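Below is a filled-in request sheet from our internal design queue. Each sheet records the structural input a requester submitted and the sequence that came back. We keep these sheets so that new team members can see what a complete request looks like end to end.

REQUESTER: design group, bay 2
PRIORITY: normal
MODE: inverse folding
CHAIN LENGTH: 353
BACKBONE (tokenized):
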């Protein structure tokens, strides 16, 4: 199947290079890049230099019968109109996250695809991040650090909000829609339990009209507490992940999968030696020593290469179910909207989501 990319910016060109590599694996369900369309002539020119055909308009793609699918990688506010037009043209669709600006708009977009009978998939690629899969492995299997009861998931950059449209509310800018959408999707894939309450704070360090960071605390019905942090003002990062279990603690330091697990062997150490701490003395905060704990390596999980494209192409061929379900995508929007309300009104939202 041939696929055309609409929006040849950062992510569109990243997809183009990934698709080239996917093709090299001689997949059972191929996706061959037909070309791109970008409203900016400079980006069309860049595609030409990359040896990629630049369509003169989106209409040209709709009319091209050799194109079976499109991948929409434009700014967030321009996804819906392309999903509608692509559906009407009978093209299968991959749309970048966040597909929409609201749950209502996302639901309408699914409606266009369902009416046209085309496959509509959201690029929630971070479900295949090795760091996430490794923490999910720890969460799913109590033999690592026992029952996990608290998780902290952080991404911390020091570059502010990049580019232009990401700073504008009307274009779906802000870090909750940009990164929150990934971390919340991961959270809901990990903790399979209803949310009982949440509290969120947005930051506006750089004085933009949209949030340049957010901090979301969630309580689940199964007792798990989950913290999501997105920062763009941080030059010294905290770990990407920290998971607390009844038998130990796990840290995934970064996307490079550095970190480890400390398993507790003696829960209550009666022989804690106190330490000097600042201008005082403490036993409570003294680090565990000796054979009361053991250090273990992370139970690393690697994602299947190109799993997202493979599944999309197989779904288009009617051979597999789409991996990213409509109900899952809409639930992420419900959480983001509740978080925005919490941040705006400075309240805890007590709703089952
Ligand atoms: N899944 C991920 O990991 C990931 C990572 C980065 C970005 N994204 C998503 O990809 C999308 C694009 O982000 P980006 O960082 O590539 O932005 P970008 O600004 O780098 O690129 C957007 C491109 O779209 C083009 N464009 C704008 N309006 C258009 C229109 N009407 N028709 C055709 N082209 C148009 C622009 O000229 C630009 O080249 C966003 O939805 C973003 O959230 C996803």
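RETURNED SEQUENCE:
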């Amino acid at each position: 199947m041939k696929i055309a990319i609409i929006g040849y910016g950062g992510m569109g060109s990243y997809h183009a290079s990934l698709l080239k590599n996917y093709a090299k694996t001689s997949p059972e369900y191929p996706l061959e890049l037909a070309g791109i369309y970008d409203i900016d002539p400079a980006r069309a020119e860049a595609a030409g230099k990359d040896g990629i055909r630049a369509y003169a308009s989106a209409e040209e793609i709709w009319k091209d019968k050799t194109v079976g699918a499109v991948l929409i990688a434009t700014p967030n506010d321009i996804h819906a109109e392309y999903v509608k037009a692509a559906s009407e043209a009978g093209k299968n669709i991959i749309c970048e996250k966040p597909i929409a600006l609201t749950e209502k708009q996302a639901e309408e977009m699914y409606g266009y695809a369902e009416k046209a009978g085309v496959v509509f998939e959201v690029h929630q690629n971070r479900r295949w991040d090795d760091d996430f899969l490794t923490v999910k492995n720890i969460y799913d299997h109590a033999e690592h650090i026992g029952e996990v009861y608290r998780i902290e998931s952080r991404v911390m950059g020091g570059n502010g909000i990049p580019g232009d449209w990401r700073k504008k509310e009307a274009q779906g800018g802000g870090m909750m829609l940009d990164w929150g959408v990934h971390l919340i999707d991961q959270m809901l894939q990990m903790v399979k339990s209803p949310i009982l309450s949440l509290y969120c704070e947005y930051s506006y360090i750089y004085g933009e009209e949209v949030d340049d960071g957010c901090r979301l605390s969630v309580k689940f019905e199964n007792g798990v507490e989950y913290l999501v942090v997105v920062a763009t003002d941080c030059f010294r990062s905290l770990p990407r992940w920290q998971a607390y279990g009844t038998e130990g603690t796990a840290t995934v330091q970064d996307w490079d999968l550095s970190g480890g697990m400390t398993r507790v062997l003696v829960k209550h150490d009666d022989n804690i030696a106190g330490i000097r701490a600042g201008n005082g003395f403490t036993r409570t905060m003294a680090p565990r020593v000796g054979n009361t704990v053991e250090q273990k390596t992370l139970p690393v999980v690697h994602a299947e290469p190109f799993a997202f494209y493979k599944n999309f192409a197989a779904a288009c061929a009617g051979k597999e179910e789409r991996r990213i379900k409509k109900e899952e995508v809409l639930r992420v929007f419900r959480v983001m909207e509740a978080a925005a309300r919490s941040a705006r009104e400075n309240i805890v939202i007590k709703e089952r989501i």
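SHEET NOTES:
- The radius of gyration is 23 Å.
- The mean pLDDT is 97.
FILED BY: M.R.
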